[in-house]
Amino acid sequence: MPRLAPPAIAPGSIRRLPQPVLRSDALVLRPWRAGDEPTVVEAYADPDIRHWHDRSMDADEAAAWVAHWAGRWQAETGAGWAITIDDEPVGQISLRTFEHGDGISEVSYWVLPGARGRRIAPTALRAVATWGFETVGLHRIQVDHATQNTASCQVATRAGFPLEGTKRGAYLQSDGRHDAHLHARLADGVS
Ligand SMILES: CC(C)(COP(=O)(O)OP(=O)(O)OC[C@H]1O[C@@H](n2cnc3c(N)ncnc32)[C@H](O)[C@@H]1OP(=O)(O)O)[C@@H](O)C(=O)NCCC(=O)NCCS
């Protein structure tokens, strides 16, 4: 059944553009490409990334993961970037959903252990949000994280995504259920 409101993001409006390279400070956010697989395997060997993203990653899975982003862009189901410094990947950030009807997206990010504490994630989050609001026409971008993940809470808050509330029992992970914080930023700057 058709919705009464027109979609906030016209279907096809994302894939008609090439996925951009985004720059902020020393960071260059570029699409994933062949050759990035070892970084992805290294990332998911880190206990915190493994735990909070609730997945393991071997070499074959990393190859599939790197390759799948091009299809996600074409299908307009997500957009993923390698966060790089001096052409070396140090993390990932993605708009992992596009809800065309309401103009909403959700974010995922991680930073390799050796690169943490340098504001890489909040800087990348601001860059992706600016692109999502200004180019895609998103109305709202959300970050949610387990309440115990205080580093992620700091990233979202620092990037201008205030806390909206707590989703009780939102995640089932290897160690059981977790409550999650929901943060969001709106296109019009009204938090
Ligand atoms: C959360 C994460 C992306 C933060 O990235 P970052 O680029 O280090 O972000 P920041 O530099 O802004 O640091 C954020 C917080 O991390 C913590 N932190 C700082 N240095 C750190 C280090 N060397 N190692 C671990 N955590 C550190 C601090 O609490 C910091 O907040 P504060 O400076 O206000 O005290 C990163 O820690 C990470 O990848 N964690 C594992 C995966 C994850 O949690 N992903 C998000 C799931 S929702």
Characterization of the model:
With 191 residues, this protein is an alpha+beta fold. It has a domain at 22-145: Gcn5-related N-acetyltransferase (GNAT) (Aminopeptidase). The chain has helices at 37-45, 47-53, 59-75, 120-136, 150-158, and strands at 22-24, 27-31, 79-85, 88-95, 104-111, 140-146, 163-173, 176-186. An 8-stranded mixed sheet has the order 1-2-3-4-5-6-8-7, sandwiched between helices. Helix 1 (37-45) packs across helix 3. It binds coenzyme A. Coenzyme A binds at residues 48-49, 52, 109-111, 116-122, 145, 149-152, 154-155, 158.
Helix/strand layout:
Blueprint: E1 22-24, E2 27-31, H1 37-45, H2 47-53, H3 59-75, E3 79-85, E4 88-95, E5 104-111, H4 120-136, E6 140-146, H5 150-158, E7 163-173, E8 176-186
Parallel strand pairs: 5-6
Antiparallel strand pairs: 1-2, 2-3, 3-4, 4-5, 6-8, 7-8
Helix pairs in contact: 1-3
The protein binds coenzyme A.
